[in-house]
Amino acid sequence: MHGYEAIANALEREGVEHMFAVAAEDNMELLVELNVNKRVGIISARKECGAAGMADGYSRATGRPGVCTVTLGPGLTNTATSLTTARLHQSPVICITTELSVLDRMGFKGGLDQRRFAEITAGKYIAVRHGETLAEDIRLAFHHVRSGAGPVVLAVPAEIMGGELDMEWEYSPATTMAPTPQRSRPDPEMIARAADILRASERPLILAGRGAFESGAEEEIRALAQRTGALLATTLLARGYLVDHPFNVGTAGGYASESVHSLLAECDCVVAVGCSLNLRTTELGLLFAEAQIIHIDRDPKRIGKITPVSLGIVGDARASLGALNAELERQCFTSKGGFWHDEVKANIAAARPTQTAYAESPDTIDPRQLVAEMDKILPKERIVAMDAGHFQMFVANTVSVPDPSHLLSTLDFGSVGMGLFQGIGAAIGRPDRHVVVFTGDGGFMMTLEELDTAVRKRIPMTVVIMNDNAFGVEVHMLRAQGKPVDVALYDNPDFASVARAFGAVGLTVRNLNDLQAVATKVGRGDRPVVVDAKVNPGVVHEVLLELLTGNLGHAGEDK
Ligand SMILES: Cc1ncc(C[n+]2csc(CCOP(=O)(O)OP(=O)(O)O)c2C)c(N)n1
Ligand SMILES: [Mg+2]
Fold first, then answer.
1. What element of type H or E holds 248?
2. Is there a common fold for 188-351 and 367-548?
3. Beta bridge partners of 206
């Protein structure tokens, strides 16, 4: 048996259904074997950063390992930004590459210390040592990513990949080694201290992040809010969580409306659960500066990492909140009502649908109006992938998702250009969902080669380019500094024509009328729909304005 046949067998046994790839002389036999004999779908990307980014999007959308393969050396270096993004999100991504024998290393494709490269990007490098350890090394790679430790580069020496294995091949999947996932229970001492803080609080807030959603803590959050009269808020990544709760004010931080913002600023205690308490949520730490913060997370390294807290509780969100509820019950605690008053409820309800006065212009659409209209047009069962840029703030304000697991934010590494890759990967993993990618014109131009992959794979996704003919963030920053903005201005090609040349549907939007054509195309057919939305470059998001002027404490629009 050849090494590539053994690897294909292992991947099949691990349940891999799709392989994101850029073929080269060192991995092509593996790809053929997977495709022909194992019926694993091969998603051939145009460039390695795309393949790795798609594997990341696939894993985010499905929760399963996303596997990609690239050639050694330059193929691997091309994955740098995608693997770093995956590491910062702790995505279960396995990137399979090869290694040259020691003698070859100085020559063709050899000028890279792959271990060092992989350790600073993906975080982990597993080099297969011998044919005899191949099974163990592959199993270790799957065990690593399934344990939540983030991505790994698995490097197979070229002579093992292409050579004959001198042994019986047997593979048992990594899942057989892993313990059943367990909930980590909090220390009762810490729970008692949290109860003390909550008893002394008059206006508590429960701030729920993606971790709370993933741990299934909804019932416990509702019960704790009822018991303490707490206000509820979520992080941006937990968008879509607890939306029907009358005391949920929506996204905390800069995206909150003025009235909601004042409510948040009144809190004297924050139970932050399953969230990072990043600077956007806390408005550079100013929003909850006076409050006692209880931070609950199963990973002790995340507690208090960005924002100082009064008490850290290491534990699963659901188990910890359950214990906190039980402790307050044991103490027969009844709150004085906290935020749970009709007036607050009415304020929250009134703050929700903000009627925005949109900027009028003959050739462009207000970005807020565009996102609001797209929110109505897009199928409800959607996955939203947001690229990074000024435009993303409008998307974050308004676009809705069925629950937090349907929102892919690529901001982990702050890189522009991950949105299209992750959207394609998500669409491959979740064909039952409509994927929409929101990107800027700058981000699209950095990544448009993968539009070809979406067309080739007949993915009926939607790509909305919020086109201001600029690196908008830089333009607004330069302008705020009184400097010329030319370095950040770009004349773009006609994206609708570009899309059609790729074989996608291409549409241009300058006004509400143009959106009617979009509504007739989205979610139909077997091709991507690319919307070149000419957005009004004069509309600057309030969160960006705050950052530029340093005038924090003011609010954005909507929720
Ligand atoms: C890979 C990468 N390059 C550059 C940047 C710096 N940067 C941040 S936002 C931005 C503008 C991107 O332009 P566009 O996609 O058109 O979005 P806009 O801000 O115009 O809405 C740039 C270049 C970055 N974050 N990542
Ligand atoms: Mg732009």
1. strand 248-251
2. yes
3. 232, 271
Between β-strands 248-251 and 231-234, what pairing exists: parallel, antiparallel or unpaired?
parallel
pLDDT, tens digit (0-9, with 9 covering 90-100), for 542-551? 888 877 876 5
CA end-to-end span of the chain: 59
Cβ of 84 less than 6 Å from ligand 1: no
Tokens of 521: 């195309």
**Binding site membership of 53 for ligand 1 (Cβ less than 6 Å):** no
Q: SS3 of 473, please?
A: helix
Percentage of the chain modeled with pLDDT above 90:
83
Evaluate: CB of 416 within 6 angstroms of ligand 1: yes
Contacts of 378 (CB under 8 A, 6+ apart): 434, 436, 462, 522, 523
Question: Does ligand 1 come within 6 angstroms of the Cβ of 533?
Answer: no
Find residue 435's DSSP bridge partners: 383
User: Per-domain residue ranges for the chain?
Assistant: 3-177, 188-351, 367-548
- Provide the CATH topology of domain 188-351: Rossmann fold (3.40.50)
Rounded distance between C-alpha atoms, residue 91 and residue 348, angstroms = 35
Distance 415 CA to ligand 1 centre (A): 8
Residues whose CB is less than 8 angstroms from the CB of residue 302 and which lie 6 or more positions away in sequence, other chains included: 276
CA–centroid distance, 471 to ligand 1, in Å, is 6
Please, what sign has the CA dihedral across residues 360, 361, 366, 370? positive
Sign of CA dihedral 359, 362, 366, 372: positive
- Residues 419-432 have pLDDT tens digits of 999 999 999 999 99
Distance (angstroms) between ligand 1 centre and the Cα of 392 equals 10
Ligand 1 pocket, residue 322 CB under 6 Å: no
SS3 347: helix
- CATH entry 3.40.50.970 includes domain 367-548: yes
Does 3-177 carry CATH code 3.40.50.970? Answer: yes
Atom of ligand 1 at shortest range from CA of 414: 25
**Is ligand 1 within 6 A of the CB of residue 390?**
yes
The finding on whether 472 has its CB within 6 A of some atom of ligand 1 is yes
With CA atoms as reference, report the closest residue to 347 among 240, 268, 260: 260
Q: What per-residue confidence (pLDDT) applies to 557?
A: 29
- Whole-prediction pTM: 0.92
Q: In what order do the strands lie in the sheet with 407-409?
A: 407-409, 382-386, 434-440, 462-467, 529-534, 505-509
Residue 439 in 3-state DSSP?
strand
CA distances from 267 to 129, 250, 295, 305, 441 (A): 56, 15, 15, 21, 40
Expressed in angstroms and rounded, the spacing between residue 537 Cα and the centre of ligand 2 is 8
